[in-house]
Amino acid sequence: MTSNPYPLGLRLHGRRVVVVGGGAVATRRLPALLDAGADVLLVAPELTPALRAQADAGRLHWVPRRFVPEDLDGAWLVQVAVDDSMAAASVSAVAAERRIFCVRADDRTAATAWTPAVTRHGPVTVAVLGGGDPRRAMTVRDAIRDLLAVRLAPDGIAGRPDASSGTTGGRQAGRVALVGAGPGDPELITVKGWRLLTEADVVVADRLVPGLLLDELRPDVELVDASKIPYGPSRAQEEINQILVDRALAGAFVVRLKGGDPYVFGRGGEELLACAAAGVPVTVVPGVTSSIAAPAAAGIPVTHRGVAHEFTVVSGHLAPDAPASLVRWDALAGLHGTLVILMGLKNLAAITATLIAHGRSPQTSAAVVQEATTGTQRVLRSTLGEVAADLLAAELRPPAVVVVGDVVDALDG
Ligand SMILES: C[S@@+](CC[C@H](N)C(=O)[O-])C[C@H]1O[C@@H](n2cnc3c(N)ncnc32)[C@H](O)[C@@H]1O
Q1: What is the pLDDT of residues 56-107, one digit of tens each?
Q2: What single DSSP character describes residue 322?
Q3: Residues with CB under 6 A from ligand 1
């Protein structure tokens, strides 16, 4: 008769865990052990490149030979990640003699401990054991993960107040998160960004933020539409900074949701400084930036072997001859690589003329990608010499990214 396992959360920080084997299974098991702060001793004659990189970086101790019983000296746990069941059995026999729990990749029935399928949501860890069937465990885990991604309620599952981490009930009270929402497709927000959004009391959102993300907010969340704040751009930014600070100081968890990445032409730095000046803690969650994602969505890699070894992202919101422009268009014209221009439609004729005047060939391939990654994405392919006129004829409009360089044709068959 088999009895049910007894679930535990092992606190492995600084404790010796021995991993025997240096192949694919060990490679998969190691990150969670390192994440738990375990003092890992890896015993294996050879390692996968990923494990080797961890060893070279000093994140574990590697003993490049086969297992000997003394390897378990001082160990709290052993993970046997070898295919050879004779070798595995001899490790688990030594472990049993010393009363050390032993996980076996080759034979779960012979193991004294099982590793669960796990999903992590901030401070919450859900571990699922499938009665000895790892696939069942993973199926249940996936269902729970999907449920939590949508519904991780701030006052529900997340736990008790935790003064040391500044959270209450798992919530991040009195804080701001600058979250990149990605370029347009709501599925291109990061997992962390999405989780923080589901925990927010207040969401301050930009115009370019995918609407569907906002559609799914809880009804009690205060939504501030930053694009509707009156005044000019600089007063409006001050106003946004003030809203972030005021709401956070009043105890709310504020998510500042920004299109793409918060630090790519997103004024995220100014918001961080305003919060810091007011003593409000800030978390920054990077996002998928349109400067890379928009070309990708149009089938254009920003770099390609043998074609481009660099890409430069530049704002075209000021004309090349504008006194306030910080861009050396003449120098950019001398580069061979990829140029990605954001906010450049209005000034595109002047920009392309300047690049050509300083030596970039008018035959260089160019493309414009409008509303990338959304259902209304449009792509125009042209050349540096023609793109400004083609853009007008095709009536493309912002938001759009312009890509200049040989990469535009790199993946054409
Ligand atoms: C103020 S900048 C913000 C950029 C953003 N932080 C990012 O990382 O993508 C706005 C510009 O980004 C570009 N952009 C943003 N989303 C886009 C999309 N879905 N398709 C094409 N261009 C986009 C356009 O050039 C637009 O004018």
Answers
A1: 989 999 999 999 999 999 999 999 999 999 999 999 999 999 999 999 989 9
A2: -
A3: 183-184, 208, 258-261, 264-266, 289-291, 294, 342-343, 369, 371-373, 398-401
